[in-house]
Amino acid sequence: MTPPTVVHLLASAAAEAPEAEALVLDGERLTYREYAACAASLSAVLRGLGVDGNRVATLLPNSLEACIAAFAVHAAGAQTAPLNPLYTARELGFILRDAAPGVLIVDAARADTARPLAQEAGIPQLLVVGPGGMDLLAARGGPPNLTLPDPDSLALLQYTGGTTGHPKGVELTHRAIAANVAQRDGLLPTRRLPDEPPGERILVMMPLFHSYGMGMGLFLAAWCRGALVIRPRYHPVDTLEAVACERITLFPGSPTVFTGLLAHPDMAATDWSTVHTCYSGSAPLSEQTLRRWEEAVGAPVLEGYGQTEAGPILTYNPARGIRKPGSVGIPLAHTQVQIVDVETGTRVRGPGERGEIRARGPQIMRGYRARPAETAEALRGGWLYTGDIGEFDADGYLFIRDRKKDMAIVGGYNVYPREIDELLFLHPDVADAASVGVPDAYRGETIVAYVVLRDGARATVADLLDHCRAHLAKYKVPAAVEVLDALPRTTVNKTDKKALRERAQSGGSA
């Protein structure tokens, strides 16, 4: 049965399994009754600030507060805009101006950075939570009375990169998010308390502001009434200790995580016996890594595909059925996925034929915030055009072959080279710039930037990298910068990105 909203999931868990463990972070543990009580209390505070029908931005690391705030904002009738804590002030400033939230929720560590940004963006309220701010856990003994939002109202405003160099706000309704949680369980069934004790124990070290962390961690745990074991960030030793000590059963990861752990000396000594399923998402997983992981852990890796605009999941390899290494599986229930020609986007391709992936279903976004042209380009005739190139095999399994969009996935994060180019152009010594994503065995891809300096310029590669580090999140900073006399051009005088990729992959000039 599909729940109307994810708040309904938390409310049901608090009513039917009140003493089941819900959240775990270091020595702090919350039951579902306490979890709902904390969310209800913060929700009441937010309603008092007049957020109903507005937006609330959150700038929080992986924490108990991040989980509580996500459900509290929804219960308050507001739309959540979760922001990346790794973003610089420059990156945050654009998003805050675009989202125009009524409240910005931050932790004390980020309050000094957030305060001037909130003032500049005209945000009337800054709410500091956690140690050094409002103690959200103080309400754990209160009533778990959550207000249930309108399923057709907007629930999430998640920002994803844009080919124009600026992030776009993806608007998702409560019904779309809840539908995707239920759809996911059709292919990846979970044990649900109290019918099948002891329930799932899910490790989340993936960022909770990210659609993958939400869909395969935060909302999944509420769906199955399992324990969400939170780690502040991915660290190999910390992750391996948590798997064994917390008796993890579900392990959502990414290619970067799988590769890093396989190379760690403590991997072989870790007790993985309680883990029955691993999930992979956010970037393509190599078949070799998948096979090595399954041999080491003794549990299958189920790989899927989606994007923020799709709520986020479209396909997965089924837990009870045929799994195909290299494939991202079959469409979720009530989801149609087609391969169409790249030129018109209307001619459906058959098995073994490549083209653009398009999809439709109840989980698809409503559109991009305040971007009608880009919304019209992405949503056509009821279909979401993903911009990815793929093909189906004869059994209906999807394989991702390429990306139509000029995008790289670095450690699971979408990185748009145009954004790096735009920043490099801001350096006074740069005359021309172009960045490309190239394969990387650990991160999936990395960014290599090529720069042409102005006449008489004295900037060094180190200077240019420092410029990037000052204004970009760490994962967006190029792994290398090379200074050229001129960028290669196509016959129509456009920058030849293909030639640059070939140069980067060959490690020198072509």
Question: What attributes does this structure have?
Answer:
510 residues; alpha/beta; Rossmann fold; GMP Synthetase, Chain A, domain 3; 2 domains; five-stranded antiparallel β-sheet; 14 helices; 26 strands; 31% helix; globular
Would you give the CATH topology of the largest domain?
Answer: Rossmann fold
**Structural domain count:** 2
- How many beta-strand runs? 26
CATH class of the largest domain: Alpha Beta
Q: Give the strand order, joined by hyphens, for the main sheet.
A: 11-12-13-14-15
The helix content, as a percent range, equals: 25-40%
Structural class: alpha/beta
CATH hierarchy: architecture of the largest domain:
3-Layer(aba) Sandwich
- Note the gap between the termini: 57 Å
Mean pLDDT: 93
What is the CATH homologous superfamily assignment of the largest domain? ANL, N-terminal domain
Number of helices: 14
Question: What low-confidence regions span 5 or more consecutive residues with pLDDT below 50?
Answer: none
Fraction in beta strands: 25-35%
Structure description:
- With 510 residues, the protein is of the alpha/beta class.
- The protein has 2 domains: 6-317 and 325-392, Rossmann fold, CATH 3.40.50.12780; 408-506, 2-Layer Sandwich (GMP Synthetase, Chain A, domain 3), CATH 3.30.300.30.
- It is 31% helix and 26% strand.
- The chain has helices at 6-16, 32-48, 64-75, 89-99, 108-121, 174-187, 211-224, 236-245, 255-262, 287-297, 372-378, 417-425, 461-471, 497-506, and strands at 21-25, 28-31, 55-59, 79-82, 103-107, 125-129, 154-160, 168-173, 201-204, 227-230, 250-253, 277-280, 301-306, 313-316, 330-331, 336-340, 355-360, 367-368, 379-380, 383-392, 398-403, 408-410, 413-415, 430-440, 444-453, 480-483.
- The strands form 7 sheets. The protein has a 5-stranded mixed β-sheet. Strands 16, 17, 19, 20 and 21 form a 5-stranded antiparallel β-sheet that branches. Strands 2-1-10-9 form a 4-stranded mixed β-sheet, sandwiched between helices.
- The radius of gyration is 23 Å and the shape is globular.
